[in-house]
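Hi there, hope your week has been kind to you so far. Do you reckon you could talk me through the fold, stretch by stretch? I've dropped the whole record in just underneath, so have a look:
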Amino acid sequence: MQPPFPVTEAMATVRIHLDAVDTDNAPLLIASGSHQCGLIRERDVGEIVGASEIYSCDAEPGDVWLYATAILHASDRAVRPTRRKVLQVDYSATDLPKPLEWLLD
């Protein structure tokens, strides 16, 4: 389930890296500033990505990344597949519109 975009737009995501992630191990790639573009239609993703600076989120075990949940992000296919475990937590201070509810159990 994906919350309505106004909810996603107000959320933050925390990634705690349990394993190292380098350029060979398919790090998270983010399109800098894309979270400020509002709701991006699939047909417009290429244009937004092409106009954005792309950052590779390499990490060591224990590194923590915090980013806007709505930012365009992806990973390439790993060149040298190894473990790439992360603990990801999405935070929201926004209530969902009725009848939707956050699962709290």
In short: The longest helix spans residues 45-50. The two ends are 16 Å apart (CA to CA). The mean pLDDT is 88. The first strand starts at residue 12 and ends at 17.
